[in-house]
Write a structure and sequence with these properties.
three-stranded mixed β-sheet
Length: 189
C-alpha cells in the first residue's frame, strides 16, 4: 500500500477512537451527574433525619424535665401536708381545756414548736387560708357538717373544722368546714 492509503485508515481509526472516547466521557459524565444527584438527595434525606432526631431529643428532654418538676412538686406537697397534719394536731392540743392547767413554760415550748412547723410550711410556699364567713366553694372547701341557722346566709362557711392550704394560688388541701343552710319551713311539718 501506498503511504496515503496507510494514512487514511489510521485517520479513520483515530476519529472513531475520539468519538468513542467522547461518547464514553458523555456516558461517564451522565452517570456521574446521576450519582451526584443521588448523593445530594441522600445528603438532604440524612440532614432531615438528623434534624428530626435532634428535635425529638429536645422534646424528650423538655418532657423529662417537666415530669421531674412535677414529681418534685408532688413529693414536696406530700411531705408538707404531713406537716400540716402535725400542725392541726398541735392546734387541737393547744386549744384543749386541759392545756389551761398546764405549766406555762411547757405550754410556751409547745406553742413555739407549732409556730416553727407553720413557718417551715410557709417557707416552702404553702399558706393556710381562712374561710369562715366565705361562701361555700367546693374547690376550696369540704363540707362535713351543715347547720340550719338564721344568723348566716345559706351556703356560708360557719365553722372551720380543719384549715385548708394553698400553693401558688392552687388549693392543695381543702378546708373541712361546717356550712349554714336555710331554716326548714314551718309549713312542712
Amino acid at each position: 500500500m501506498s503511504e496515503t492509503e496507510d494514512k487514511i485508515p489510521q485517520e479513520d481509526s483515530a476519529e472513531s477512537e475520539q468519538s468513542t472516547d467522547s461518547a464514553n466521557i458523555k456516558n461517564s459524565s451522565g452517570e456521574s451527574n446521576d450519582e451526584l444527584a443521588e448523593a445530594l438527595r441522600e445528603k438532604d434525606q440524612f440532614k432531615r433525619l438528623a434534624q428530626r432526631a435532634q428535635a425529638d431529643l429536645v422534646n424528650y428532654r423538655r418532657r423529662i424535665e417537666g415530669e421531674q418538676e412535677s414529681s418534685r412538686h408532688r413529693n414536696l406537697q406530700r411531705i408538707v401536708l404531713k406537716f400540716a397534719d402535725v400542725i392541726d394536731q398541735l392546734d387541737v392540743a393547744l386549744s384543749a381545756d386541759s392545756m389551761k392547767d398546764t405549766e406555762a413554760g411547757w405550754l410556751e415550748g409547745i406553742t413555739a414548736i407549732q409556730k416553727n412547723f407553720v413557718n417551715a410550711v410557709s417557707s416552702e410556699g404553702f399558706e393556710r387560708f381562712d374561710c369562715v364567713g366565705e361562701e361555700f366553694d367546693p374547690r376550696k372547701h369540704e363540707a362535713l357538717l351543715s347547720s340550719p341557722t338564721a344568723d348566716h346566709a345559706p351556703d356560708t362557711v360557719v365553722t372551720e373544722l380543719r384549715p385548708g392550704y394553698m400553693y401558688n394560688g392552687e388549693v392543695v388541701r381543702p378546708a373541712q368546714v361546717q356550712i349554714a343552710v336555710a331554716l326548714p319551713d314551718e309549713d312542712e311539718d
